[in-house]
UniProtKB/TrEMBL annotation:
InterPro entries with a match to the protein in the record: xxxLxxG_rpt (IPR023908)
Name this protein carries in UniProt: X-X-X-Leu-X-X-Gly heptad repeat-containing protein
Endpoints of the signal sequence: 1-24
Keywords: Signal
Amino acid sequence: MRFKRATAMFTAFLLVLPTVPVSAEENGKTEPATKGSYSKKHEVVYTTLDATGDQEEMYVVNNFTIDEPGEIVDYGPYTNVQNLTDVTEIEQQNEKIELTAKEEEYYYQGNLEGKPLPWNINVSYQLDGEAMKPEELVGKDGKLKVSIDTTKNEGADESFFNNYLMQITMKLDSMIYENIQAPEGTVANAGKNRQVTFTVMPEKEGSFTLTADVTDLEMESIEFAAIPSSMSIDAPDIGGMKNDMGSLSNATAEINNGVGELKNGIAELNDGAASLYDGSEQYNNGIQGLSNGSSELVEGSASIKNALQQMNEAVASGSGEVNVSDFAKMEEGLGQLAGGLSEVEKGLTNLKEQYGQAHQALSQSIEAIPQYEITEQEIQALHESGANPEVVNKLVETYEAAQTAKGTYANVKEAYQAVGPALEQSAGSLNEMSTNLNTMSDQIGSSMENMDIGESVKQLQEGLQSLSSKYGEFHSGLKEYTSGVDRLAGSYADIHSGIGSLTNGTAELESGAAELHDGTSQLAANTSDLPGQMDSEIEQMVEEYDKSDFEPTSFVSEKNKKVGSVQFVIKTESIKKDEEQEEAPEKEEEKSFWDRLLDLFR
């Protein structure tokens, strides 16, 4: 029985022998290695990061498009290499890689250590405003904020940073994440998930944030894909826009010219307002001086009135004996009264002259205010011209104040014109009264020696009675006049203060108009060639983002030639719960063919 069993096993062995391959070397034959060639080499750099962006592992999948099968040479500081196409061994001597390619497409993998990426990547996390480590976030609820920053790695080949476009992708489970906000990114549906995408342009550093409400937090890996920005950018057709920009340049120049004219008009207005203020100040000083002297004038007149009354009473009740010295005192009093009235008359005459000058200056200044009307549309256009809003508001307020002052003056113009004749009439009346008093004083002095005392006393009684009565009327009129002067002085102080405010406003307006004109001049200068500036800016932008002339170089070694493309696939570690692994039953180790064959003989 053992013999029969052995015979059967041997027969089975013979049946399977033809299926065992025999290499050329086992036959004693060695195939000569022929030199091969390839047209293009492509590199895909795979890198894993931890959840905060620190680099962990890196390997490169190299792909060759073979023209002639045979031995080809590649370079790279790989820690180990692995054939991904067939079972042919790859020989590595330092950074030189020798391989035998038989297929049209040949792939092999090389692992790298310590090779820096062209970008520094940093990912940070906050939950409810508190910075947290990734492992602390698992299973938490709250307001999540993820910040992603990419910067240039100065320790790597800068050609990739300068010419590569990076796309950052986050996949978020809609059952976990709600109210997703990504100001610098796009949010799209991807099945049951929400996909957030950020883009970093060549030569740019990126800074992005994502916020969301999370429940029982878990997060998939953040993916970074970097590829050459090789698309060609054509300059857009901006013919119509250039025409519009030309019209805008012309309009800006017209605005500048209009503001220049406005500035000149405001300067003239300010000069007129300054002249008005000077004349008003002279008039105000005169009227205030006259008002200040009114009380003394009234007191002096009251004293004269009382003296006349006392003289009249004394003469009327006298015995006929008259003290000549009293006539001398009366003569002296009448002379002083006539002199006081003469001074008042001179003051009124001077006031009339000053008032006339001030009124003329006021009239000329008010008439110097331009008659033109600025519409609401023009004011709105000025606001939209880019000028300083504060200056524009000052211009508008001063324009409105100037127009109000012009209208107010037109309403009170007749009252101003009536003041001069009234002052002239008052001065004439005072002059007449002063002359009469002087004449009376002279007559008393010249007739004292030759007069008949009795008759003279009688005439004196009648004259004093008449003079006292008339002077009472004059005194009442004088009080009304001084009261009017006081009221005029008080009212004109407010007018003068208003004219001062107007002068200050026009001065600020002139300064603001000058500043506005400087701004519009600069605006007109800067926009004088808008079409040309647009062409220049567009050419600069096209040149900045058009990387179609970029020639790729190997990421692994500068010795590698015929590089068709280099791509980067980068992923962070996911943030997930530790799943309990169920203990699987130990599987019986699968036996090889030779083990099963030998078991037949056991």
